[in-house]
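ARCHIVE CARD
Drawer: 12
Card no.: 0347
Subject: one protein chain, sequence and derived structure
Cross-reference: see card 0346
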Amino acid sequence: MGRYTGPKTKLCRRVGFMIFDNVNVEKAFLKRENVRFQGKKSEYGRRLTEKQKIMHYYGLREKQMRKMFDKARRTKGDTGRNFLILLERRLDNVITQAGLAPSRPAARQIISHGNVLVNGAKVDIASYIVKTGDTVTFRDKPGIQKLVEEYVNAKSGYDAPDWIAVDTKSRTAKIVREPLREDVRLPVNEQLVVEFYSR
């Protein structure tokens, strides 16, 4: 399954949550919030909705979701928690959560063009999993530095999660600890996702 390219507001109403970081989508979503109607869902439908929330929020394909879930299942501990923590630690998500990009698609574009450094080394894979102590910066190119500066200014007043230490002047983000379950800003029941993939 490819990435969703249809009406974003319609998708947000379907799952009952503002998935995309887009002012126009948010306005349209809130405008019709009171007329949103979702019929009673089956158990499968509820599990599917929770899975779709995660997939669209992080901008993943089904194959990527399954791969990440399998990795979480092989990790010691609660599978659902491990799954969300792995997704939070993706490089594209870290850049977005740090306020250094307006959205995950924008972060992925910067990464794929080879403009992101982790501990001084170029990383062009958006799914790269950061570790505690890693420092994320951008290539010292005027065009890239100016672009990121514009992103930062556009998100003035934004509060990054406290597991990421952000320096907006130098446009860097350092991972000070592993994210916790309560750091995940997406309201989702991960246990239903575990049940979906375990059926």
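Annotation on reverse: Residues 92 and 126 are 5 Å apart (CA to CA). The two ends are 19 Å apart (CA to CA).
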